[in-house]
Design brief:
Elements: H1 14-28, H2 33-40, H3 44-51, H4 59-69, H5 79-112
Helix pairs in contact: 2-3
Pfam families: HTH_31 (PF13560)
Domain HTH cro/C1-type: 22-75
Protein name: Helix-turn-helix transcriptional regulator
Length: 115
């Protein structure tokens, strides 16, 4: 027997919305995550992570889901929103990394300059 599915919040982000759509389409076809993964030639862990918005789907995953789940284009229409969200998250992470790096560099430079 499988675990109780995690409650999804599709309003939180495009990634969450995509995951909820994917789960809904999969369940309408009466497929488990493992069964869908087998049809997509991937793992159930990948399907699970995408459904719970822990991983971004790539273009081929989206296209394959469209075919396997007969999604009628609904998943592919999400792709530009997913790409925008991925880009924003990457920029935010880079800014965070740069801020962390600058806090490490300033003391080292100060010591090198004898301050």
């Amino acid at each position: 027997m499988g675990q109780k599915p995690k409650k999804l919040n599709p309003e939180r982000s495009p990634l969450d919305h995509f995951g909820a759509l994917l789960r809904d389409l999969r369940e309408r076809q009466d497929l488990s995550q493992a069964a869908l993964a087998e049809k997509l030639l991937t793992t159930s862990a990948v399907v699970r992570k995408i459904e719970v918005a822990a991983r971004f789907p790539n273009t081929s995953f989206i296209a394959d889901c469209e075919k396997v789940l007969n999604a009628g284009g609904v998943l592919q229409r999400m792709e530009p929103l997913l790409e925008r969200e991925r880009s924003l998250r990457q920029r935010k992470q880079r800014a965070k990394d740069q801020a962390a790096a600058s806090t490490l560099i300033v003391p080292v430079v100060s010591r090198l300059n004898g301050q």
